[in-house]
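Workshop exercise sheet. Pairs work together: one partner reads the sequence aloud, the other fills in the structure field after running the prediction. Swap roles for the next sheet.
Pair: D.N. / O.F.
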Amino acid sequence: MLSFAEEIYLLALDEKTGRPTIRYKNIEMQNVLVGAILAELTFLHRIDTDIEKVYLLDATPVGNPVLDRALSLICGSAKPQLISHWINTLWADRHLIENHVLQALLDKKILKQEDKKILWLFPSREYPIIDGVELQNIENRLRNLILSDEIPEPRETVLVSLVDACGFFQDILSPREYQRSRERIANLAKMDAIGRTVTHLIDTIYKVYTMEMHV
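Structure field:
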């Protein structure tokens, strides 16, 4: 089973070039990847969250360097902190998280690495998808969930929230399906506190970015 971060990263890639298609200088994807780390720790029963804060449940390392680094930071806190605090704290590790996720997808033979040169001079590296089955499975699972009335499993609720924060449902669904499903997406996304916080932070960063572009 792929992690939340691996699923988000796959959804963010252009299938042919293997480059992220996220707008706003990768801010969306990096924020969501950070949120995905906290979500993964929740499902591994290392932390718990309420509508605002993160609580340590178990300090035992999980054997994943990125997850264990996040867990060690949480362990070092004298008291429970806001979800937004940990997302902001882990933001410093965003490149480490992204590189780890990319390597995991390469190790699983879902992506491949291609080194190219632009104008036969400037090196360029791409990571096209080897087999689109995993990506299709994620998209089909999300599409079927959104277009139905079924109650999602907790893990699916988190994924919906993270995918919504990235704005990926506009790519997964047709324009008509998306318009018809916006209320359901919003209602499902609200069920996950981490996803709500990520969305709020992305909205805040985007507003600042937009203001800077107009200065």
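Discussion prompt: Residues 4-213 form a domain with the yeast vps74-n-term truncation variant fold fold (CATH 1.10.3630.10). What would you look at next?
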